[in-house]
């Protein structure tokens, strides 16, 4: 985890609006479904900022209620972690939710990728919440 919850100038800090939007989108991913880092970035109003999603999830405290395990890379794989063993933990959490991996360690994105519905009357994808977010900031290292 990042000791002070910051990104060292990479574009977000503990409690930032961008992090709140990322966490809100990740909370919407249903059990047994996954989203890619890029998909979460897009739905958070941060297109092209998949790495920032990774930084935000890395900043979460252990035991956070944000279901970080449901975010995977665009190849349908669990991404390697700096801390040994966390990729295995993520895979086990996903398997406990019913997500299956093949012999190469990939999952079938076509079968289990989350596809949010359009919000009625808003014309925006579910999860694309802009600046209207008023949810509490989850616990981050700090």
- Describe the sheet with the most strands: 2 strands, parallel
Low-confidence stretches: 1-11, 123-142
CATH architecture: Orthogonal Bundle
Structural class: mainly alpha
- Tell me, rounded to a whole number, the average pLDDT: 80
| Count of domains | 1
CATH class: Mainly Alpha
Helical residues, percent: 25-40%
Task: Please give the oligomerization state of what you see.
Answer: single chain
The total of beta strands comes to 2
Cα Rg: 15 Å
Number of helices: 5
**Biggest sheet, strands in spatial order?**
1-2
Q: Classify the fold: give the CATH topology.
A: Arc Repressor Mutant, subunit A
- H/E topology pattern: HEHHEHH
Explain what you see.
The protein is mainly alpha-helical. The protein has helices at residues 17-28, 37-43, 50-58, 86-96, 109-112; strands spanning 35-36, 71-72. The chain has a two-stranded parallel ribbon. Helix 2 crosses helix 3 (50-58). Residues 1-11 and 123-142 have low confidence and may be disordered.
